[in-house]
Design brief:
113 residues; mainly alpha; 4 helices; 58% helix; FMC1_homologue; Protein FMC1 homolog
């Protein structure tokens, strides 16, 4: 199993994802139920002494998994918006996608405007 990092880093990552989600609505992320739940859960499972706290490690693992899900969904939506097919494209648009340019006017013999 890969190292999870610190619980504080995971919490900051989750809060960052909440900010991304609430940026579209314009509401502060601190007014959401998700923020209140996260803060309550992380405060309740805080280790206050040098003992091994299984519930705290379980919460941290679930939080890291949820953070991975939120990041993956956000990145998937960004990729989907960028590369989603927009129907039939013209030859010029298709050439531009692969970095080519069509000649502005074909030259040579036999060309009649």
């Amino acid at each position: 199993m890969a190292a999870l990092g610190s619980p504080g880093r995971t919490l900051r990552g989750l809060l960052r994802e909440l900010r991304y989600l609430n940026a579209a609505t314009g509401r502060p992320y601190r007014d959401t139920a998700a923020y209140r739940y996260l803060m309550k859960a992380f405060r309740a499972h805080r280790v206050t002494s040098e003992k091994l706290c299984r519930a705290q490690h379980e919460l941290h693992f679930q939080a890291a998994t949820y953070l991975c899900l939120l990041r993956s969904v956000r990145e998937h939506l960004a990729l989907h918006q960028e590369f989603h097919g927009k129907g039939e494209r013209s030859v010029e648009e298709s050439a531009g996608l692969v970095g080519l340019q069509l000649p502005s006017q074909p030259g040579g013999k036999g060309w009649e405007p």
